[in-house]
Amino acid sequence: MKIQAIPLxxxxxxxxxxxxxRPVLPFIAVxxxxxxxxxxxxxxxxxxxxxxxxxxxxxxGLNLAVGFGGQLAIGFVAVLTLGAYVAxxxxxxxxxxxxxxxxxxxxxxxxxxxxxxxxxxxALRLGSFYFAMTTLGFATIVTxxxxxxxxxxxxxxxxxxxxxxxxxxxxxxxxxxxxxLAALCTWMTANIAHSRFGRGLVAIRDADVAAEAxxxxxxxxxxxxxxxxxxxxxxxxxxxxxxxxxxxPDAFTFDLSVLFFIAxxxxxxxxxxxxLLGIIVLTVLPELAAPLVAWSTFLYAILLLVIVLTIPGGxxxxxxxxxxxxxxxxxxxxPQMDLVPVMLPPRxxxxxxxxxxxxxxxxxxxxxxxxxxxxxxxxxxxxxxxxGSGKTTTLNVISGYAAPEQGQITLGDTPxxxxxxxxxxxxxxxxxxxxxxxxxxxxxxxxxxxGGSINGRASFxxxxxxxxxxxxxxxxxxxxxxxxxxxxxxxxxxxxxxxRLQHSELRFVEIARALMQRPSILLLDEPAAGLTPGxxxxxxxxxxxxxxxxxxxxxxxxxxxxxxxxxxxxxxxxLGRVLACGxxxxxxxxxxxxxxxxxx
Length: 600
Ligand code: ADP
Ligand code: MG
Hints:
By secondary structure, the chain is of the alpha/beta class. It has helices spanning 10-16, 25-40, 43-68, 77-92, 101-120, 128-148, 150-153, 171-193, 196-206, 208-213, 218-244, 254-267, 273-288, 296-310, 314-319, 340-343, 391-398, 444-449, 460-464, 468-488, 503-516, 533-548, 560-566, 584-588, 591-598; strands spanning 159-160, 246-247, 353-362, 365-375, 380-384, 406-411, 414-415, 429-431, 521-525, 552-556, 569-574, 577-582. Residues 1-20 have low confidence and may be disordered.
């Protein structure tokens, strides 16, 4: 069985993935306008545009953390300040011999990278509110140090910015440099945005637990992103100091931080183009009417309110024509079972997953109380029981979210550790959720492609520079995700924003995402909830077909028909304890189960 056997031809791809999946035209238009600017206007506007380009160098990186990753790094002006001072102080030679300007810029980038990492660390532990506060604290510290360390930074009187060598020592030369760097940053950050790392960030923002379930290593990803943000912000700081020729601590106000943040929100989170337009608008707007400069903070606030109230998705939502097209009503989900063996080549004897004497309490509630359970490769194991009987908790224990107080879980002979749920995907364990965990603002295709995260080969750095492994990864993810979508019968919706789908469709999207992982164990938490009777039958066939490929399925369900149709074994839980277990026929005739649960 080869994937190529399926006619995933250019034609079928073309119909599913919009041609504008990664539109470059708007970027080229912005770049062309920026290049033309000095020729059609004066030095004044070139200076304004240089400032916008420098801000964008910072914001392009920050956008990954804030817009994609949802991390409230509001005090990022701190790194701009740091970069400006490092570059200026080194170039001025107040501590060492004077450095060449470009070396000083490089050092600013390096200092920014370290600062970015340090600022990012609390994000891995703190809630978003506290994280926002620590970034603000960092901004205050940097400014205070710059003020107090007079011998080096010149204190309140300031220090000269690095003066770049020819040809970058003219207005036009500096603009050219900043514009080239801004274009480079746009390209690099867009590469990350459109990769498994970008999807991972959006997943951290919109569906934290789903990110972990597919194997996204949150700490590592966020740290890489913050180091990148810091580097770009540091370089931007150095350039900012060159542009200003002279810097003092008051050049770096909190307003500037707010400006960066608002540019991202106005532009639209999860977009590269939106925040780029956002920073252009916010830099240019006050210049169009000089009297407004004094009011700029006020105007930003008003603009932000208007945007949040009228178009919460920002400029990016305005520009997203694809998702304003109506999608057909009365859609039918028709999974294609013949694709199951293509997606999941049959595996020889996999490992059995075994829970032994697992106990987990929430306060006084024994959510699971001495549970034994075995999920065998190639079989479907049903887990049923009334609400609150511990079914979801069992899934959470298996997928590593909840650590039991007692008992253990093994996959084959390997004990599975707890506390690091993102490692479960590497063990071949995939799951869906009782309430679908979806990246609502991403396309259906992106949602499914997220499931491939652990199979990516290209590193963060390779992705940043769009090296061949990144291209191979993305081509494979797209083909696989399309195949998974065809399998569950949703390929027609690949390009649609996931939050436009019906609930039942989201259930199948989650299954497609889980299958992308090519799991050996699949955990399904009430996949039939909210489905029509017809859809439940198709779901049953799909589950059966998947298990026949040698995958062990744990099916948590309330629909007795589905359970009895597809399961090889059934365990009935009540108050966290096993009430009965056996074949469907045995369970159906178990007197206690029938009277307590099946209501017959
Ligand atoms: P089911 O999925 O079978 O409906 P759950 O596994 O969700 O049941 O819940 C089992 C029991 O554990 C319930 O009594 C529930 O209230 C309790 N429980 C589940 N999660 C938590 C939690 N995070 N904190 C406290 N109690 C919880
Ligand atoms: Mg549940």
